[in-house]
């Protein structure tokens, strides 16, 4: 069953632009909403995460926006840089335990 | 710094062989996981272990087994490798379940079954 739908599958952005990746989920029991970043040849690593009691969290150029009623959360990368080129996964958890990965978004930032 | 090490980056095996993928973590984590990563499918959980000698099936356990004899080591076993098991395999560890602690991943083993 597909509990997490991530879009787009791939994204090309010019340097300095804004990258937006979306994640829609079905299970209302999800209670923690992280994004993982994976560079080629490396394993995924936690980038940023949000709890459902807040609507937005910002860390540097990265922001998570969370819409509980729409069951969606998104990752915004401001002032995108070529070094941000990677694959991004949303990976919501329920019971703070069971993690469900989206299909991934391959981001390319052109210089 | 946290370290999860997978023994092989690339592995080529033949159909029907028994294949072992090894993973070691140095963080004294109770919980370890095996995923496979395929394009367009994200990461899918094969098995996880929450303690030595304990294991739980994930979403796609068929054709796989695991072994955890020591806390720091978690092995994935393909009992009789098949071509549809060609994939990238990722090991991860995590401190506490039922917490917001992140999962720490190894760099993966790309396995080809011929």
Listing every helix as H and every strand as E from the N terminus to the C terminus, the arrangement of chain B reads: EEEEEEEEEEE
Question: How much of the residues of chain B is beta strand, in percent?
Answer: over 45%
Fraction of helical residues of chain B: under 10%
The Rg value of chain A, from CA coordinates, equals 13 Å
Structural class category of chain A: mainly beta
Shape of chain A: globular
Q: Figure out the total of helices of chain B.
A: 0
Q: What is the CA–CA distance across the termini of chain A?
A: 38 Å
Name the poorly predicted regions of chain B. none
Q: What is the distance, rounded to the nearest whole angstrom, between the alpha carbons of the first and last residues of chain B?
A: 37 Å
- SS content category of chain B: mainly beta
How many strand elements of chain B? 11
Helix fraction bin of chain A: under 10%
Helices and strands, with pairings:
The complex is a heterodimer of chains A (111) and B (114).
Chain A: E1 4-7, E2 10-14, E3 19-25, E4 30-38, E5 45-50, E6 56-59, E7 62-67, E8 72-77, E9 86-90, E10 93-94, E11 98-99, E12 105-110
Parallel strand pairs in A: 2-12
Antiparallel strand pairs in A: 1-3, 3-8, 4-5, 4-9, 4-10, 6-7, 7-8, 9-12, 10-11
Chain B: E1 4-6, E2 10-13, E3 19-25, E4 31-38, E5 42-49, E6 56-57, E7 64-70, E8 73-78, E9 87-94, E10 104-105, E11 109-113
Essential attributes:
heterodimer; A: 111 residues; mainly beta; seven-stranded mixed β-sheet; 56% strand; globular; B: 114 residues; four-stranded antiparallel β-sheet; 11 strands
């Amino acid at each position: 069953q597909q509990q997490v739908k991530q879009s787009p599958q791939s994204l090309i952005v010019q340097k300095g632009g804004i990258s937006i990746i979306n994640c829609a989920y079905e299970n209302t029991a999800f209670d923690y909403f992280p994004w993982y970043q994976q560079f080629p040849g490396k394993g995924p690593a936690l980038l940023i995460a949000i709890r459902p009691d807040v609507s937005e969290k910002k860390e540097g150029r990265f922001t998570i926006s969370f819409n509980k009623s729409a069951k969606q959360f998104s990752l915004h990368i401001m002032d995108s840089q070529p070094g941000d080129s990677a694959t991004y996964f949303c990976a919501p958890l329920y019971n703070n335990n069971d993690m469900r990965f989206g299909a991934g978004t391959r981001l390319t930032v052109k210089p | 710094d946290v370290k999860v090490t997978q023994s092989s980056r690339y592995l080529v095996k033949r159909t029907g062989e028994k294949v072992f993928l090894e993973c070691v973590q140095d963080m004294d984590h109770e919980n370890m996981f095996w995923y496979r990563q395929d394009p367009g499918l994200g990461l899918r959980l094969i098995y996880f272990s929450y303690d030595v000698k304990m294991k739980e099936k994930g979403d796609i356990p068929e054709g796989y087994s695991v072994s955890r004899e020591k806390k720091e080591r978690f092995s994935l076993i393909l009992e009789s490798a098949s071509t549809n098991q060609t994939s990238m395999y990722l090991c991860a560890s995590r401190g506490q379940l039922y917490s917001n602690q992140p999962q720490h991943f190894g760099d993966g083993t790309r396995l080809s079954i011929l």
